[in-house]
Amino acid sequence: MVKAALRRLAYVVFVVWAAVTLSFIASNVLPSDPARMVAGPQARPEDVARIKKDLGLDRPATVRYGLFLSRLLHVSSLPDTDAAHKTCGTLGPLHVDLGKSYQQRRPVLTILGERLPRTLALAVVAVFLQVLFGVSAGAFAAKRRGSAADTATVTASLLGVSAPTFILGLFLQWLLAYRLNLLPLDGFGKTFADHATCIVLPALTLGLFGAAYYTRVVRDEMRAELLRDYVRTARAKGASELGVVRHALANVALPLVTLIALDLGGLVGGAIVTESLFRWPGLGSLSVTAILDRDGPLVQGCVIVTSAAIVVSNMVADGLYGILDPRTRRR
Amino acid sequence: MGADDESLSRRVLREGKTKAGLVLVLVLVLFSAAGPLVSSHDPFASDFTFGISKEQTPLGPSALHWLGTDRIYRDELVRLALGGRLSLAIGLGATAIATAVGALVGMIAGFFEGSVVDVVLMRIVDVILAFPFLLLVMTLGVVFERTTPLTILFTLGLTGWLGTARIVRAKTIGIRSLDFVQAARALGQSTPRLIWLHVVPNVSPLLLVLGTMSVAQMIIAESVLSYLGAGISPPTPTWGHMLFEGQDYYQAAPWILLAPAVTILASVLGFNLLGEGLRDAIEPKR
């Protein structure tokens, strides 16, 4: 048990390390100049050179990579107020250091700490909406198989999975914010009430898009379940139609839970398009600006969070499958 | 084989989804191919005579400009067609690369399941999959400084094969253990020959389905890249870039946004329908 857990942990570390290394290579070795991005297009060559030195970019990439890895997780008795550990996050003597953003001149860890809760909030609301819409629409269509309502649901969900989030998002923005003036166009706001209204459009966009897929999964699975023997037995014993649906749903929950775990993991990394479209200041929009600015440390920070979220959610999905379905449990 | 093929193609065409998808795709291809040739408008020239309103804003749909003019008074329709050539070419080209790489990796990994080769290949897939697709594509796109259609095509092609590789691997493992493959191997057929003669023909229907649906994903990815500012540099129009330009005009000139949005939606829907139709025909109904 402990051995298996350790093995999994090692695997997570490996994948995150590889992904970070990949992003390090992409942002450092390949031809693009972060110093010039910081200095601006009109800067004099000597200014660019000075900034390069400031950012430590005058050293060879291999040296910087070594430094980055050794700083990433190190042990030190000094507090984070010490000059050499200003960019560290500390947990007792354990220090995590992701460096300083080139553009924002702030510790990457601080920036991630600001952005992560907002992205988490968006992910949770979005997944809640997609489960709510997806399961009810899917169960409804399966119950009325072959009817006009079924066909309509299927057509709508096919359209939904074909609509890229930026088109769906633009449409919702136009309809709900511009035309009907019910919600703010975009942004994050200042108070909690602001946040709560600002989150609706991006969450609805992600939720509807995801719901389209969930609808199809739930409908297909439900249709198969409703033909099973236990449903007939339940009906014969006088179960109400609602009770029958509840029985069948319990069996559909298995593939659904796996999907939910995977979706949550993907969304924690940030819904890049949706966050950018609605100017939601989470990890997704952060990654975009970091990449466009060639802000290496910030990109690496984003990649660490994202890849960890994806690997861990994959693992959780696998684990949940084992817990929920005893048949797949390995001895 | 012949009779089997015939029934398959008939089955494919009987699917309503396939027909609808095929019609959508063909219309878009025809429109993109012929549009710039037939139209009397220059896609790169502003029309300051008939394409501009008294208030200096773009003009809506009219008899002269069927879909109106864009933000600098160029004909929207002919630009949509021209953009379609690029968007479709990138979608198809990137899919071709991604499917070829994915099939090769998947078949090799599947055929040597459990070996070092398989483990290494699948770890590579795991790592790149943990890297969000868009982040990866954007990083590569930004690294290339000036993005040409070719860099986008290769970036998408070389990052989009992961899912295909996984599915093909699973399928190959299944095929490898079938009796006739075991028999062929016992008779001393070499590994490349085994793969070519037995695995490839059995995997190709699956590749057709995956490929068709991948075209839709590639069209979306290209649009998203342009939309996020890491796409093909202007003035070359693509659907994604036109959408990006239209976004700021949806109050004054909604057609600039609507035209590319509807076109992207139609093309994605078309390829998805076609892919699902093919899948339903190839796979026995559940």
What topology does this entry show?
The complex is a heterodimer of chains A (331) and B (286).
Chain A: H1 2-28, H2 34-39, H3 45-54, H4 61-72, E1 73-75, E2 88-91, E3 94-97, H5 108-143, H6 148-162, H7 165-179, H8 192-198, H9 200-226, H10 229-236, H11 241-268, H12 272-277, H13 283-292, H14 296-324
Helix pairs in contact in A: 1-14, 5-6, 5-9, 5-11, 6-9, 7-9, 9-11, 11-14, 13-14
Chain B: H1 2-14, H2 16-38, H3 76-111, H4 116-130, H5 133-143, H6 149-159, H7 162-176, H8 179-186, H9 191-227, H10 239-246, H11 254-282
Helix pairs in contact in B: 1-11, 2-3, 2-11, 3-4, 3-6, 3-7, 3-9, 5-6, 7-9, 9-10, 9-11, 10-11
Report on this structure:
The complex is a heterodimer of chains A (331) and B (286). With 331 residues, chain A is mainly alpha-helical. Chain A has helices at residues 2-28, 34-39, 45-54, 61-72, 108-143, 148-162, 165-179, 192-198, 200-226, 229-236, 241-268, 272-277, 283-292, 296-324; strands at 73-75, 88-91, 94-97. In chain A, helix 1 (2-28) runs antiparallel to helix 14 (296-324), helix 5 packs across helix 9 and helix 6 (148-162) packs across helix 9 (200-226). The longest helix of chain A is centred in the middle third of the chain and has 36 residues, at 108-143. Chain B has 286 residues and is mainly alpha-helical. Chain B is built from 11 helices and no strands. Chain B has helices spanning 2-14, 16-38, 76-111, 116-130, 133-143, 149-159, 162-176, 179-186, 191-227, 239-246, 254-282. Chain B is elongated and about 80 Å long. The two termini of chain B are 24 Å apart. The mean pLDDT of chain B is 80. Chain A binds chain B through residues 14-16, 18-19, 22-23, 26-27, 30-32, 158-159, 161-164, 166-167, 170-171, 174, 178, 220, 224, 266, 269-270, 272-273, 276, 287-288, 291-292, 294, 299, 302-303, 306-307, 310-311, and chain B through 123, 126-132, 134-135, 138-140, 142-143, 145, 216, 220, 223-224, 227-230, 243, 247, 250-251, 254, 257, 261, 264-265, 268-269, 272-273, 286.
